[in-house]
Design brief:
The protein has four helices and four strands. It is of the alpha+beta class. It has a four-stranded antiparallel beta sheet, covered by helices on one side. It is elongated and about 55 Å long. The relative contact order is 0.22. The model has no long low-confidence stretch (mean pLDDT about 95).
């Protein structure tokens, strides 16, 4: 877990009409460890100066630089997979698309909690809409 916050403009960050600007959200995972039947998945959110990146457009980096708050929250999880119930070849797909949806509420809570603890207007990431689906065993 990594938590970091910098407040660059206290007055703006305390104002009633302050809302967080754009942010970068990334997720990644390890390879599946067959010896332990585990896979590590992490998600991070970066905003403000922490989101400046050479892969961004110049306009995006300029917007990030102007934000009154910079925040970096990274949360990870270790998932144990029952390979008798879940096909091993589907694990990377699950880790890329489904596991981040499990981790996201914890990232969201950490962003909110970190901003609250430093005394600025709380930053609240949006809820994610999860499509419904059903599992069909073959």
């Amino acid at each position: 877990m990594k938590l970091s916050i910098e407040v660059h403009d206290v007055k703006t960050a305390h104002s009633a009409d302050y809302q967080a600007g754009n942010y970068a959200m990334e997720a990644g995972h390890s390879d599946f460890d067959t010896a332990t039947s585990t896979i590590h998945v992490s998600m991070r959110v970066r905003a403000g100066r922490f989101a400046v990146d050479e892969d961004n457009s110049e306009a995006d980096n300029e917007e990030y630089e102007k934000q009154p708050v910079s925040i970096w929250v990274e949360v990870g999880g270790v998932f144990i997979v029952d390979t008798e119930e879940f096909p091993v070849e589907q694990i990377p797909h699950w880790a890329e698309f489904n596991a981040p949806l499990i981790i996201y509420p914890y990232v969201r809570e950490q962003v909110y909690g970190l901003s609250t603890r430093v005394g600025i207007k709380p930053l609240l990431l949006p809820l994610l809409e999860i499509p419904s689906f059903r599992i069909v065993k073959k």
